[in-house]
Amino acid sequence: MKSKFQKIKGTYDILPPESKKWNEVISILQSISHQFGYEEIKTPIIENIDLFKQNIGYETDVSKEMFSWEDSSSNQLVLKPEMTAPVVRAYIESGFFRSKPLCKLFYIDALFRREKPQKGRQRQFHQFGIEALGSSGVEQDVEVILLATKVLSHLGITNTTLQINNIGNHETRKKYEEKLNGYFSDYKSNLSKLSQNRLENNSLRILDSKEKEDLEIIKNAPLINEFLTKDELNNFKTLLSHLDALEISYKESSHLVRGLDYYNGTTFEISNMSSRSQNALLGGGRYDYLVESMGGPSTPAVGFAAGIERLLIESSMHNKNKEIDFFIGFDSHAEKAIRIANQLIDEGYSIYIDTLKKSEKNQLKNAIKMNASFYLRCSELIELKNLSSKEECVINNITDLKKFIKS
Ligand code: HAM
Question: Which residue has a Cα nearest atom 23 of ligand 1?
Fold first, then answer.
């Protein structure tokens, strides 16, 4: 039978048993964040369009792919496509920059981008992310990357590559962009259409291109390393030596520029080696200018975000089919069943009441299928069966029940 209504393209339902695994992943993400001293932040789903246009960049893919509309008061609103800008907005509005000199926040939230849907890429997706605001120390970058690697190892995600780069400060980047512009302009007619457009607006982004015709040209493009200042190079070296000490392997990737405009300094991405498309599990970096450009005080910051759907696809965690304690079936003796169910709930047990009033055989089959520890059938008598030992008895009340399950 076909439903009269279908879900919106690029969205999906999280159905059981997947929803169980989803919640397990969420609780792992929360517990790792708490272990590292990060506190949770939740922000509204809707924001003003300018929060993103101005801060992630007018010409970025994310900016162009927003779900936006004008409300009845002529406000231009969007469904948020990413979390860094809203977190910074909240950080400034709440005055955390005063009360929390080093502010460490994490989030788990739904985001929206009007992208072409495919495996691991949806129009509504979810991110887990962290943002550390207030520290310019390279140790902060290390902590953020360490947390990212812990997330992957706790979820049983192996076979990943950490790519890391330093894209310099605004001045460095400007010089580099000029050089790149000159280089790519020489090959303009050979570049893909997409890269020709990027050449007009943001030549750095050409380095991200996966188009066949661009790859050979990108290979010989000038490298950012040649433009980094001494301090930036030293910082980067220190960061890598910390990673070495932690035995976190990485690949220096001088073309890793990331797709949002607010980055400077360290950028990184962790991708999956085995999947071909949509292999970026998480990405992030420094954004030392963002707080100030949004009206706050000059505040260095660094963070990353991971796509939860992508984590779930790659996680080798198995769905622990948590069993229920009591499967309760009944025939016409509903009152007895409901009374005992009520008592069991108050005692802290998990129960499943089968209200279909099917045969004992059918109920028993379902109790086993659901991994219940005990099958309790309320008819004339109340019968209780231990589904692993196969022992059974007749009980009169909850006291008898407790005695039986302890024996
Ligand atoms: P992003 O690279 O745009 O960065 O997204 C981070 C992660 O979100 C990606 O690596 C991917 O796993 C997931 N993701 C992105 N788009 C989709 C999609 N359409 N469907 C499924 N998963 C997706 C940011 O959003 C930055 N705000 C990260 C950051 C935090 N930088 C500093 N702090």
Answer: 307
